[in-house]
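Notebook entry, structure prediction.
Reason for the run: the old model in the group folder had no record of what sequence produced it. Starting over properly, with the input documented here first.
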Amino acid sequence: MRLVYNTALLPLGAAAVVWGAWPRTSATARLERDQRLGRRLPSVPSGAVWLHGASVGEARLVASIARAWRSRAPRLPLVVSAVTPAGRAVLPAPPDADASFFLPLDFAAVQRRAFDAIRPTLVVLLETELWPNLLWEGQQRGIPVALVNARLAPERWRRYRRLRSLYGPLVRSLAAVLCASATEAERFAGLGALPARLSVTGNLKYDLPAPDTDAGTLSARFGLDPGRSVVVAGSTGAGEDTILLDALVAARREIADLFLVLAPRHLERAAEAASDATRRGLRVHRLSSGADRDAGGADVLVADRIGELSGLYALGAGSFVGGSLVPVGGHNLLEPIAAGSPPLFGPHTGHVAEIAEALLAAVARAWIRLAREPDERAKRVRAGRKFLDANRGALDRTLSALSALLDPAPRGRAAVSP
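New structure, fully documented this time:
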């Protein structure tokens, strides 16, 4: 199966050769290209643990693991990677990790270069980062690879089952599959994960720290009057911003100065979101423009800087978490709960056009109620934090399981043919 996979990658390999030779004007772009091709990787002490998460959400979990592990084992070298530039931007820096880099492309030769440079003693992948050549390279070198906070969305699980001849051996080769829930464990078991290496450690997102800010501090930062009501719409996707902006307009008929923080999931959509707001007669301030205190003179703050959203939720009397009005599956509902902002979310359906009017009205009513009724908001915040507290502990369980993989005692790794 390895030959089939790498043969299928040949056209992409040819494109990568051209890409590697293409001139880059930006030093950042050159570094990204080189690291994706397995070059200019950081120099770290031998025996490092390599932690990898794809984008912003997974990179925040990488940061949480790195900080906790560094506090437990200060001398253990830690190196971290991500796929997207946004994820790379929120990876931990020294002293929480020794180095960070872009994940090299999953070509066999590139992964060999990466393992030669990093020389890891353990590779830890977040959620669903099952890159075949990376896994094969680790297996060939006898380096344990663990999947933590492991999860498989139903559509991905069905796809992996269809490709079981590829993913089955890869999943069986994992030294540990630490699942976010029992449902996820069942899915990985169905793909062939070995029972002795499969466990439910819980969802690491429950253990993410609360933001180190509050509504009063943020109001002062943005020049907002202390009594002004604020709502937050985070991680919004294409097709959602218009509904949420219309909900704001509707809610402002009853709360005239209601202020919206709008944070598109992908920053390249920020300009479009700002234009959508302007077309509705709303005044817009973009976070990237600086002069934060000027935001108080606007109606909408477009959060177009990486790493700000989790703190900005603390401003919201109520929030909305995107990816839930379109068939994306929704994004992290725990961030606003941790920040003390009751979250709303959509129906996880693609039929937005048919239900947009009802959604608009529902979001507007909920925002009005949360802004006007402090007792209702406080009740929801207490319930949310109680829920968070009841589900914490995944980080400790995960670190204990990973630390066991560093034990020099035999782990009983089964030989798995590619």
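Summary: Residues 349-355, 409-418 have pLDDT under 50 and may be disordered.
The old model has been moved to the deprecated folder.
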